[in-house]
């Protein structure tokens, strides 16, 4: 039996977390958090995801701040990040991608498209190649 890739979903909207959790649970090991600080605490405890899906507009720590924290960390900097946002501003997308996000999707989003983007990033980062060798 092959191991599932681990996704961390971070969003302050319970409905988005529910979509991520239910849509991806059969294909991935999914953990959801309504606060970026909780996800960071898990990561600092050694629970590392293969990819992170993070909302942009959250209280306390924004998605942009979270991307910056992950990218500036020596331990977490290589974890792929997809940012979700209701903001459709090209300027905001460019800013987030320049901060270090691997992709940006506008809400509402199609879970199938999000899955395709996740798989594309995992292929690019070599995660699928590792799976093929271990099968």
TrEMBL record:
<dbReference type="Pfam" id="PF00072">
    <property type="entry name" value="Response_reg"/>
</dbReference>
<dbReference type="GO" id="GO:0006355">
    <property type="term" value="P:regulation of DNA-templated transcription"/>
</dbReference>
<keyword id="KW-0805">Transcription regulation</keyword>
<dbReference type="GO" id="GO:0000976">
    <property type="term" value="F:transcription cis-regulatory region binding"/>
</dbReference>
<keyword id="KW-0597">Phosphoprotein</keyword>
<dbReference type="InterPro" id="IPR039420">
    <property type="entry name" value="WalR-like"/>
</dbReference>
<feature type="modified residue" description="4-aspartylphosphate">
    <location>
        <position position="55"/>
    </location>
</feature>
<dbReference type="GO" id="GO:0032993">
    <property type="term" value="C:protein-DNA complex"/>
</dbReference>
<dbReference type="InterPro" id="IPR001789">
    <property type="entry name" value="Sig_transdc_resp-reg_receiver"/>
</dbReference>
<feature type="domain" description="Response regulatory">
    <location>
        <begin position="6"/>
        <end position="122"/>
    </location>
</feature>
<keyword id="KW-0804">Transcription</keyword>
<dbReference type="GO" id="GO:0000156">
    <property type="term" value="F:phosphorelay response regulator activity"/>
</dbReference>
<keyword id="KW-0902">Two-component regulatory system</keyword>
<dbReference type="GO" id="GO:0005829">
    <property type="term" value="C:cytosol"/>
</dbReference>
<keyword id="KW-0238">DNA-binding</keyword>
<protein>
    <submittedName>
        <fullName>Putative two-component system response regulator</fullName>
    </submittedName>
</protein>
<dbReference type="InterPro" id="IPR011006">
    <property type="entry name" value="CheY-like_superfamily"/>
</dbReference>
């Amino acid at each position: 039996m092959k191991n599932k890739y681990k996704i961390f979903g971070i969003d302050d909207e319970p409905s988005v977390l529910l979509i991520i959790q239910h849509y991806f649970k059969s294909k991935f090991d999914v953990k959801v958090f309504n606060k970026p600080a909780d996800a960071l605490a898990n990561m600092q405890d050694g629970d590392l995801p293969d990819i992170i899906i993070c909302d942009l507009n959250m209280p306390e720590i924004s998605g942009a701040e979270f991307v910056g924290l992950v990218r500036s960390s020596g331990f977490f900097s290589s974890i792929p990040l997809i940012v979700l946002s209701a903001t459709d501003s090209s300027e905001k997308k460019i800013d987030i991608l320049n901060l270090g996000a691997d992709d940006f999707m506008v809400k509402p989003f199609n879970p199938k498209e999000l899955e395709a983007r996740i798989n594309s990033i995992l292929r690019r980062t070599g995660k699928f190649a590792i799976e093929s060798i271990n099968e």
